């Protein structure tokens, strides 16, 4: 699939917008049919998808690809199909006192053409869940997958081309210049998933066209571990969240806040949990994923070296392979906030551990930093849990676990502040990509005539009742 020029992208957008205006929004039956066809296309090419992911990453667990890419994607489509009818129903609204003879309601109207910009870390699900959402909402769509996963992008293009005509859904490919031109197109909505730095550029480009955006970004998602919680359980669940896709997950636990009396116990339990997850090692393992490319491998290795050079205790839990970009899990103790590993989202299998003396100190540490995309709390006390939830702001939260909020189809998924704008998944995705159109139907009797003679005295009575 060859890269497209800005002029070609404009022509695709013009054709899609003209087709949308000429054909009108699809009805519920057609939307469900489109979703079922998309799901069938994904399942038909399941083997090709997994193979493409392995090609792009060099080493990627097939089991993980099925669990973290395909299962959430198919379940999300199934959820949309099941609930689409309810979401599309007009909603009755209150009519004010003067106009009780009329009726008011809200209909959810497709916005038109949605631009979707997908990242490289989960290049299938983070491209096709937004696409399915746009289809469920009755829109047409242009999809820009990541240039860093070309094999997967090619399979996605083949799936889409086999199902939809280009005036309904189109896939465009290319590097940074294509991405910049894509975000500058006058879409009716842009849904972007990626880094905060690039998200700001997308928002800036969209603002020139007054295009609304949904930005799914990232940030340093903390894990707060209360004293007394089972260290074995917390370590197993944090290790799962941290090492899935080798930490290349926007909602991966970024760092752990552990009570100072539990630090050594957590460190020991975490090392045991990692060994249980990957008893066969890392380089060449069919169950462990490589870092995507040399740039990111060297960036992560640099974070570890910096921590070591500044006196942190670095615990490497396996052998790396620079040639295949495999980075074994790393635990870092004696971490100070000014270290490089605490200045940016890690996006790899490195876990810094910081200690706190009391819960207020942990909450203050989180609040002193940009708002994260996810927050994780482990503890048995409802009172302390509620203190953390009440006094912090983040995207979603998983309690006594990691990652699992993402796969709940009936929960919105999105960040706040530096971690994103807006939300999608389930109903919230449908709402984000539709316009709430208010409709009022006037009744036979026009209550507004009470404002005119000869009803002056009656009008005064009603006015005084309303304004008292």
How would you describe the overall organization of this protein?
Helix 9 (231-243) packs across helix 10. It is built from 15 helices and 16 strands. It has helices at residues 6-23, 28-44, 46-57, 62-88, 125-136, 150-163, 176-183, 196-207, 231-243, 263-277, 294-309, 359-367, 382-391, 426-432, 456-467, and strands at 91-93, 103-110, 113-117, 140-144, 169-171, 189-193, 213-216, 222-225, 255-259, 313-316, 330-333, 350-356, 374-378, 396-399, 420-421, 434-441. Strand 4 (140-144), helix 6 and strand 5 form a beta-alpha-beta unit. The model has no long low-confidence stretch (mean pLDDT 94). The radius of gyration is 25 Å and the shape is globular. Strands 10-11-12-9-8-13-14 form a seven-stranded mixed β-sheet, sandwiched between helices. It is of the alpha/beta class.
Q: Which term fits the overall shape? A: globular
The number of distinct β-strands equals: 16
Strand order of the largest sheet: 10-11-12-9-8-13-14
Which class best fits the helix and strand makeup?
alpha/beta
Largest sheet: 7 strands, mixed
Could you tell me the mean pLDDT? Answer: 94
Content of β-strand: 15-25%
Helix content: 40-55%
Uncertain residue ranges: none
Radius of gyration: 25 Å
Provide tags for this entry:
16% strand; alpha/beta; seven-stranded mixed β-sheet; single chain; 43% helix; 15 helices; six-stranded mixed β-sheet
């Amino acid at each position: 699939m060859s890269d497209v020029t800005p002029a070609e992208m404009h022509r695709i957008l013009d054709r899609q917008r003209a087709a949308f205006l000429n054909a009108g929004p699809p009805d519920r039956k057609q939307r469900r049919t489109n979703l079922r066809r998309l799901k069938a296309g994904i399942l038909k090419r399941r083997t090709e998808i997994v193979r493409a992911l392995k090609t792009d990453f060099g080493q990627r667990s097939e089991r993980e690809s099925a669990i973290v890419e395909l299962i959430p994607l198919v379940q999300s489509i199934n959820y949309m199909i099941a609930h689409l009818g309810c979401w599309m129903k007009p909603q009755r609204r209150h009519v004010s006192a003067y106009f009780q003879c009329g009726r008011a309601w809200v209909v959810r109207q497709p916005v038109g053409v949605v631009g979707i910009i997908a990242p490289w870390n989960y290049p299938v699900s983070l491209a096709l869940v937004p696409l399915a959402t746009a289809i469920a909402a009755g829109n047409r769509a242009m999809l820009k997958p990541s240039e860093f996963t070309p094999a997967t992008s090619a399979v996605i293009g083949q799936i889409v081309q086999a199902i939809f005509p280009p005036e309904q859904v189109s896939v465009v490919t290319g590097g940074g210049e294509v991405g910049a031109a894509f975000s500058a197109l006058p879409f009716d909505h842009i849904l972007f998933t990626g880094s905060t730095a690039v998200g700001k550029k997308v928002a800036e480009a969209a603002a020139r066209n007054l295009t609304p955006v949904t930005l799914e970004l990232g940030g340093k998602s903390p894990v707060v571990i209360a004293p007394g919680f089972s260290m074995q359980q917390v370590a197993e669940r944090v290790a799962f969240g941290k090492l899935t896709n080798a930490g290349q997950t926007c909602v991966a636990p970024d760092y752990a806040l552990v009570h100072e009396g539990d630090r050594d116990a957590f460190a020991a339990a975490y090392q045991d949990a990692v060994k249980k997850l990957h008893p066969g090692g890392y380089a060449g393992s069919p169950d462990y994923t490589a870092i995507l490319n040399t740039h990111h491998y060297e960036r992560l290795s640099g974070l570890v070296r910096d921590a070591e050079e500044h006196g942190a205790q670095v615990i490497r839990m396996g052998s790396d392979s620079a040639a295949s970009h495999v980075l074994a899990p790393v635990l870092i103790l004696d971490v100070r906030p000014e270290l490089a590993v605490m200045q940016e989202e890690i996006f790899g299998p490195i876990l810094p551990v910081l200690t706190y003396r009391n819960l207020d100190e942990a909450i203050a540490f989180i609040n002193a930093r940009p708002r994260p995309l996810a927050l994780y709390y482990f503890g048995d006390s409802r009172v302390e849990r509620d203190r953390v939830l009440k006094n912090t702001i983040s995207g979603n939260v998983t309690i006594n676990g990691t990652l699992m909020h993402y796969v709940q189809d009936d929960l919105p998924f999105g960040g706040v502040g530096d971690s994103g704008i807006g939300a999608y998944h389930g109903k919230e995705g449908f709402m984000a990509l539709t316009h709430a159109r208010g409709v009022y139907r006037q009744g036979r009797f026009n209550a507004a005539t009470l404002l005119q003679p000869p009803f002056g005295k009656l009008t005064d009575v009603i006015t005084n009742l309303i304004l008292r």
